[in-house]
Amino acid sequence: VHTYHYTPAINLLYGVRASIREIIDEDLSKVIERHQNAKHYLVKRIQNIGLKLLIQESNNLLAGITAVQIPDDIDGNSVIQSMYKEDDILIGGSLLGSDPNVPKFWRIGYLGVNADLKKIDQTIESLQKALQRQRYKIKAHL
What would be one Gene Ontology cellular-component term for the protein (predicted)? Predict the structure, then answer.
């Protein structure tokens, strides 16, 4: 018998249980389809405002999180802070710090209940407002 000498994060176990219940209620195939639809929709919205994806090959994109390149003349952290402060929307930044050899990008997550087209619209609208506060010209590509 192996003794586990750490206290498990019980809140994570509750989260897993709730997630499994939601998947069972919705049906796994519908959950996967919803996340795929959300991915394609988010990619289209990002490209329509003139931003670039960090991963260009569509077959390599994940459903659930998308990395968006931060334009050179934009303070990416200010955009993150502005979106959170103004609209209570939180996106992530680059995980690799300030290494000049690492591309700067935002991480936009849409898992679970956030794999929803209306929530993606809210996120993109918040991102657009934050970019415009920095005088970024939205380049609509319809």
Answer: peroxisome
